[in-house]
Amino acid sequence: MRFVVLVKATAESEAGVLPTREMLEEMGRFNDDLIRDGVMLAGEGLQASSKGARLKFTGGAATVSDGPFAETKELVAGFWIVQGKSKEEVVERFKRAPFEEAEIEIRQIFEAEDFGDNLSEEMRARDERLRGSAH
Questions:
Q1: CB-based contact 27:19 (threshold 8 Å)
Q2: 3-state secondary structure (DSSP) of residue 32
Q3: Among 55, 66, 90, 107, which is most exposed with the fewest C-beta within 10 angstroms?
């Protein structure tokens, strides 16, 4: 199973405050463990929302809003994509994440088989091609 681990934004991350060298080294060691254990598929930090945009679709039309966005608690500052045998396994692993003050959210990623018969063979083949080209 694959999971996305979302790191919630803080006032500091939204203000563009960069992590210290010590924090970066600690996170690097944590990521090294994830890689060594064959768990980590991807992971990145995100720039502040002031450098982003939101698209809202209404009636098929997109309205674009440039950042920054007001509700920090609803924003994401970074992410990992990991694999694990269960949500509980991923939760236990991320309890050891080197955060002093943070909130993370763990969500399982849909796999093609989760959609059952609603996903045609053509759509399954497209999904496999996309996943193959992403690696």
A1: yes
A2: helix
A3: 55
Alpha helix positions (H), the chain: 11-14, 21-36, 87-94, 121-133
Amino acid letter, residue 86: S
Structural domain range at position 93 = 2-133
Question: Which pairs count as long-range contacts for 48-55, CB under 8 Å and 24+ apart, including other chains?
Answer: 48/9, 48/13, 48/14, 48/15, 48/16, 49/9, 49/14, 49/75, 50/14, 50/16
Structure-token match 């989760």, residue found: 114
Q: How far is the C-alpha of 127 from the C-alpha of 112, rounded, in Å?
A: 7
Q: Are the C-beta atoms of residues 78 and 45 closer than 8 Å to each other?
A: yes
Q: Count up the domains in the chain and report the number.
A: 1
CATH number at residue 103: 3.30.70.1060
In terms of Cβ atoms closer than 10 Å to its own Cβ (0-12, 13-18, 19+), residue 75 is: buried
pTM of the model: 0.87
